[in-house]
Amino acid sequence: MVKICCIGAGYVGGPTCAVIALKCPHIPVTIVDLNQDRIDAWNSDTLPIFEPGLQEVVTQCRGRNLFFSTAIDDAIRAADIIFVSVNTPTKKNGLGAGFAADLAYVEAATRRIAAVAQSSKIVVEKSTVPCRTAESMRRILEANSRDAIRFEILSNPEFLAEGTAIADLMQPDRILIGSLPTPEGRKAQHVLADVYAEWVPRPQIITMNLWSSELSKLAANALLAQRISSINALSAICEATGADVDEVAYACGLDSRIGPKFLKASVGFGGSCFQKDILNLVYLSESLHLPEVAQYWKQVVDLNEYQKRRFAQSVVSRLFNTITNKRLAVFGFAFKKNTGDTRESAAIAVIASFLNERAHVHIHDPEVSAAQIELELVQPGVCTQAVYDAQVHRFADPYEAAKDADAIVICTEWEQFAQLDYQRLYDSMHKPAFVFDGRLILDAPKLRQIGFQVEVIGKPAAPKPGFNA
Ligand code: UDX
Ligand code: UDX
Ligand code: ADP
């Protein structure tokens, strides 16, 4: 019987190991973190992250074979398999600042394992990391290992998307397990594969070498983000020509070589992974002296910045080139629907430019707290505390947020935003009342009938007769 420990109780480690515990009731799984508050939340009825279905999984397993703790050393000693799921943010200072991943947390966790282990371990790199991180981990572990204690390193990247994490974990497209091409490496690969085989069909559990596995994770995220930047680039052409980006995406998606998924135009992608992973790839390409390759991937991020800027600018220009002292109701602050996560959310950049134009911003998001909004907005390059206090308000009720506003700006694709009573919203707003749909989720013709001026990304401003609006 194996025992599992997971270091890092975040968006990746928490749901992943909770599902392992659910599917493998005979395996004890302990998730540890340095952050006592986070662990307390995992042990309470209010989990630290919002993820549909997660509460049910945790409730079923917690105390049975799933444990949350800050006793990191004990959990390391007891485990046979240790997942490293700590954060790997983009470096803020020093060499590679703004591009390279900050591996300080991975290194600290690895050193801890080396320091306290009293038996051999399989150490699994779960956080998304730059290619060859496993090599650094291996060197740290080997340099610190003692007699008869062996460490095998595996790369087992996680492909879950937030908002659908539980479904993604229960029915993954594939599980990748990378190892060194040694007999011990392959043996460790099999041990981990047996864990997943409890619920994932064997053909979907793919083994490969360590570097391929690490690069596959970066590549998959880069390709996904590139599709969004591609459709967003087309959305600008659509607006300028009268084509409809949804129609273009539908037509292209019917080509079986292209496929329909991940072609929804938007105000821009966000989340903790896409930008970070592409910048990692850019940094890697530059370090390998491949400037053309670096430039190619960098353009995916640049286009995303452009899309956010373009959307914010269109709001200002449609509101008669000034939003000073106007109220703008921003619906959605999370980086996508069905999550409370705000990391790299497009809403942040959009709101930053509104604040810069001295507008009053009324934010409504079903899952994001006022404290979280403040944490994201009061930052260098976004806004000062004084600007935040004077110009930003968070509303639990969307109707309150839109009262006396000049415009509603949709930044997140929460389904409930399409279900609101737009007549009621319209009646309480300044006229002309505008809606800017950055997610293509609203019924624009219906809103126009109510009297709204409607702008939708990738769609013609005023539909001409004979065209489908
Ligand atoms: C992503 C990957 O999908 C996942 O496999 C990986 O493990 C982590 O990174 P995540 O960031 O959680 O997951 O969400 P995802 O659904 O990929 O969305 C990322 C961003 O792209 C969101 O802001 C989303 O709104 C946006 N998006 C997505 C679009 O704008 N259009 C689309 O068609 C799809
Ligand atoms: C293309 C489109 O596929 C087709 O739908 C359109 O009508 C005309 O343009 P074609 O140029 O005939 O068709 O061939 P295609 O199979 O698309 O290949 C184009 C080039 O891409 C070839 O040089 C091919 O070798 C190359 N290719 C294709 C790759 O290098 N890798 C691939 O995975 C696929
Ligand atoms: P991700 O989205 O990759 O899961 P998060 O930031 O949500 O990232 O979670 C990472 C978690 O890892 C945080 O809760 C952080 O406190 C924890 N962590 C970071 N370093 C260590 C460490 N050395 N030991 C234990 N936990 C750590």
UniProtKB/TrEMBL annotation:
BP terms from Gene Ontology: glycosaminoglycan biosynthetic process; UDP-glucuronate biosynthetic process
Pfam families: UDPG_MGDP_dh, UDPG_MGDP_dh_C, UDPG_MGDP_dh_N
Residues noted as binding substrate in the record, renumbered to the chain: 158-162, 217-221, 257, 264-270, 335-336, 439
Lineage, uppermost ranks: Eukaryota, Fungi, Fungi incertae sedis, Chytridiomycota, Chytridiomycota incertae sedis
Name this polypeptide is given: UDP-glucose 6-dehydrogenase
Annotated UDP-glucose/GDP-mannose dehydrogenase C-terminal domain residues: 329-444
Annotated source species: Caulochytrium protostelioides
Pathway membership: Nucleotide-sugar biosynthesis; UDP-alpha-D-glucuronate biosynthesis; UDP-alpha-D-glucuronate from UDP-alpha-D-glucose: step 1/1
Listed NCBIfam families: NDP-sugDHase (TIGR03026)
GO cellular component terms given for this protein: nucleus
GO molecular function, one term: UDP-glucose 6-dehydrogenase activity
UniProt keyword annotations, A-Z: NAD, Oxidoreductase
Active-site positions on this chain: 273
Taxonomic superkingdom: Eukaryota
Reaction catalysed by this enzyme: UDP-alpha-D-glucose + 2 NAD(+) + H2O = UDP-alpha-D-glucuronate + 2 NADH + 3 H(+)
